[in-house]
Design the sequence.
């Protein structure tokens, strides 16, 4: 148990609901696992823990999920520290990180399990490696990593902050950055080994970063009982057919970058009222050829649509935007596939580079513009082409550019605040 030697370090005075996600796979030695537990113990020992103060929960993982305790289970610091010290080293032969993250958002943060809607949620993920499904799921290594990203995205979508701490040389930096909240330099922490993890410097680093973020961010507040006529509410009243066209070409570089595109899309969808009588959404992805992911009428609420987006896989290839635009026109925003005559037809096109066939792309854009579709163009990364983005969009105000994929989420509010009227 901690000795109280951190009393001079920064500490959180704001109440938080804090969940630890702890790797207990066999790649961690018994001695190092004890150091990991000591780290968690010391962080908690520095907080004000109580039913009306900070609440703590924990889950561990390796080849299986090991629920430890929830926010309602212990109401004193002494009891929480005792429960932390009782966490066993499972020494499993796989690293199914996604199971623990799924448990975090489905169980630990589920209504009625002690998480408070008026308190900031914080998750600390500790791991010494990368997601590895082993032989326990019918998933490849890359599919397992994708699932981890998807589960982390769901936690962040609810407004929780995730710190991802990678220990040792076996960690996947891209996976850590994908798990953690943005910006990565604040929420991703890498250390060389468990001795460094258990140092005063790293403990104070986590406490300081968490406190700065929490103390400068207002706690969530319940929704107002009346609907104010504000511009940020416009999307909730929008009746439209919206299609997302997602670049999955090789120039995106990593699965983590593509996952940030998916996170952006699910964030926009979450702001809409999705139903057959309100907003309908669809999605396709493209590289060498376009692939329809779901049509406008496939999902009738935002949860189903967002879940479908989170399951989209990155493939790589060239950037045949022209083929994607043709599919958008013939199978996406098309009456034969559920689009409606009396609502705006909107496409949000996200790409990281220049079309492989610019001539055909111009021809397809001319056809879409003649149909009076409203096109938004989002260019990401250093290879984006401002001239092509300008050709895609109906209006210069409908062009957005970001330098890096992790900055994409910052454009959610900008896009949601815009008046999505037909041009």
Sequence:
């Amino acid at each position: 148990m901690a000795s109280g030697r951190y009393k001079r370090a920064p500490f959180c005075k704001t109440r938080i609901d804090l969940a630890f996600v702890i790797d207990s796979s066999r790649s961690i030695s018994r001695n190092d696992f004890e150091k990991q537990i000591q780290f968690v113990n010391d962080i908690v020992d520095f907080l004000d823990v109580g039913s009306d103060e900070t609440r703590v929960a924990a889950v561990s993982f390796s080849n299986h999920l090991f629920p430890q305790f929830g926010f309602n289970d212990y109401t004193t610091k002494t009891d929480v520290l005792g429960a932390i010290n009782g966490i066993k080293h499972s020494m499993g032969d796989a690293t199914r990180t996604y199971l623990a993250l799924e448990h975090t958002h489905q169980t630990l943060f589920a209504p009625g399990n002690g998480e408070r809607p008026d308190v900031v949620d914080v998750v600390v993920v500790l791991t010494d490696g990368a997601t590895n499904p082993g032989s326990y799921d019918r998933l490849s290594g890359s599919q397992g990593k994708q699932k981890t990203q998807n589960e982390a995205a769901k936690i962040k979508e609810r407004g929780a902050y995730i710190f991802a701490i990678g220990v040792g040389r076996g960690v996947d930096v891209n996976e850590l950055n994908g798990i953690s909240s943005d910006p990565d330099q604040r929420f991703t922490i890498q250390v060389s080994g468990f001795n460094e993890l258990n140092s005063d410097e790293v403990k104070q680093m986590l406490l300081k970063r968490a406190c700065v973020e929490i103390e400068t961010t207002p706690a969530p507040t319940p929704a107002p009982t009346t609907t104010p006529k504000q511009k940020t509410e416009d999307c909730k009243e929008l009746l439209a057919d919206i299609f997302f066209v997602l670049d999955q070409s090789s120039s995106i570089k990593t699965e983590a970058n593509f996952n940030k595109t998916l996170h952006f899309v699910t964030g926009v969808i979450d702001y809409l009222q999705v139903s057959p009588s309100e907003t309908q959404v669809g999605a396709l992805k493209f590289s060498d050829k376009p692939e329809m992911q779901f049509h406008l009428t496939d999902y009738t609420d935002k949860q189903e649509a967002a879940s479908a987006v989170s399951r989209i896989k990155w493939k790589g290839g060239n950037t045949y935007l022209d083929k994607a635009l043709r599919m958008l026109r013939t199978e996406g925003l098309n009456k034969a596939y559920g689009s409606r005559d009396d609502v705006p037809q909107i496409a949000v096109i996200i790409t990281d580079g220049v079309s492989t066939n610019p001539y055909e792309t111009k021809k397809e854009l001319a056809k879409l513009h003649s149909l009076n579709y409203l096109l938004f163009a989002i260019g990401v990364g250093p290879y984006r082409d401002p001239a092509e983005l300008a050709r895609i969009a109906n209006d210069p105000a409908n062009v957005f550019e970001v330098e890096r994929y992790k900055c994409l989420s910052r454009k959610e509010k900008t896009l949601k605040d815009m008046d999505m009227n037909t041009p």
